[in-house]
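When time allows, look over one protein, given below as sequence and tokens. The question is which stretches look regular and which look disordered:
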Amino acid sequence: MSREVRRVPLDWQHPCDGRGEYIPLFDGNARPYRSEAEEWVRNCAAWDAGTHPDLIGHPERKANMPFFWEWDGNPPDPDRYTEPTAPETCVGWQMYETVSEGTPISPVCESAEALAGWLADNKASAFAGDTATYDQWLRMIVAGSAPTFISRDGGRTIISGVAAMSDRLPGATA
């Protein structure tokens, strides 16, 4: 993903490190740490047993990488997830970049329309410096997320996922 709407409490403050930079975090409501950790443990056990889907037809993988973390990386880090929040308190709207775990690119807004307006008015990056219109942002917000970019015309044209998503959604105009 590239851009993702997160529903957050109106007073949400994304944590920062000692330099004042946002700490990338996965959305604990959409991807709870416990679920991610349990899935990693199941995959690790399957790797050890030789039944992991990525080993089927590829025995050399286990021979070259006997430990699952060599193939897939370390287990999830609980410090990289937001705490799950009760849905009834998540009335705010905030846009995140999600190329990494996720950092905000907007303030928390009171509505989808207010967020779309802020993103358009402030020329927020939809991809590689490309911005998007209010309507494009709003359609993407309603969809929930957009990929980084889409290539068209056999790769000759690259557009932001925000623009591409809005073109494919009902009510979109060319």
User: Anything to note?
Assistant: Residues 169-174 have pLDDT under 50 and may be disordered. The first strand starts at residue 3 and ends at 8. The two ends are 23 Å apart (CA to CA).
